[in-house]
């Protein structure tokens, strides 16, 4: 006995969770290309370096301007202090109020202008430093380089696409689930992703279910994330998904291969004491692996653990002697929570 999972079938396409075009934020001549087409790179690894000489000169000029602005501010503040000191002897006994009056007077405008000049020069220096750092284009995440046709000596403009970086190990499949199946679709449900091009199936889970329905197809997009550890699955591949939908708990199940049809009636061959027993049965729900046996017709019994024939039985008869070559214990591919029978 077991829980029968009735899958939701859907089709879709694989895509990378992280993919970006590498574009410079400054223009310049390509000094060197540190990678080639198809290279796998680490996060922070150098991809392309632009000639930094012009930007280095601009940074040095802005730094000099910043230092000059600091000097001007120091001079203005020094002149203000000297002026304050020269006037103090003639101020009389009320020194505090007279000093404040002097400091808020003629030199306040010059000091404010000097401080503004320092702020502007500092901003220009930081901008020049940032442009200098932007001459090195590094990978924002680990991935594979593609679309790279760049060569040293080429001139590139700001915003020009130099290559594409794709994380091909962390993928997701977007599949379209029919409106009629949405009642059984939930985030977190286990799913099987089959890739016809690879003859490979992966176990995944439903990560996101779109809150919107596509009115043209009457379907709802769902995202199933997968870790492409083998690297065989590629973005853009077609995939078929079987998502764990409605669950029929605690049912008597047999492999689908065990069910035959004779005279339009389903039957299974049970083995007891080396002899076959021909049992007509009433079938219930089914999926791709198992069929529910609701009851046995015309006498006989079928209990959990009873062996049934799953191969070489097309011409088998009742009461035939059989020799069991191999005993199979098929398991459901769905990983369900044993506590409550839900994914």
Strand content: 35-45%
Return Rg in Å: 38 Å
N-to-C CA distance: 18 Å
Structural class by SSE content: alpha+beta
Question: What is the β-strand count?
Answer: 19
Number of domains: 4
In the CATH classification, which architecture of the largest domain applies?
Beta Barrel
Per the CATH scheme, the topology name of the largest domain is Elongation Factor Tu (Ef-tu), domain 3
- Would you identify the CATH H-level superfamily of the largest domain? Efflux pump adaptor protein, beta barrel domain
Widest β-sheet, arrangement of strands? 1-10-13-12-11-14
- How many separate helices? 3
- Largest sheet, strands/sense/barrel: 6 strands, antiparallel, barrel
Are there runs of 5+ residues with pLDDT below 50, and where? 79-93, 338-343
Portion in helices: 10-25%
Describe this protein with a few key phrases.
single chain; 343 residues; alpha+beta; OB fold (Dihydrolipoamide Acetyltransferase, E2P); six-stranded antiparallel beta barrel; 3 helices; 37% strand; disordered C terminus
Question: Can you offer a commentary on this structure?
Answer:
With 343 residues, this protein is an alpha+beta fold. The chain folds into four domains: 2-17 and 167-249, Efflux pump adaptor protein, beta barrel domain (Elongation Factor Tu (Ef-tu), domain 3), CATH 2.40.30; 19-50 and 135-166, RNA polymerase II/Efflux pump adaptor protein, barrel-sandwich hybrid domain (OB fold (Dihydrolipoamide Acetyltransferase, E2P), Beta Barrel), CATH 2.40.50; 52-134; 252-343, conserved putative lor/sdh protein from methanococcus maripaludis s2 fold (Beta Barrel), CATH 2.40.420. Helices cover 21% and strands 37% of the residues. It has three helices and 19 strands. The strands form four sheets. The chain has a six-stranded antiparallel barrel with strand order 1-10-13-12-11-14. A five-stranded antiparallel β-sheet has the order 15-19-18-17-16, with no helix packed on it. Strand 18 (275-286) and strand 19 (290-297) form a beta hairpin. Residues 79-93 and 338-343 have low confidence and may be disordered.
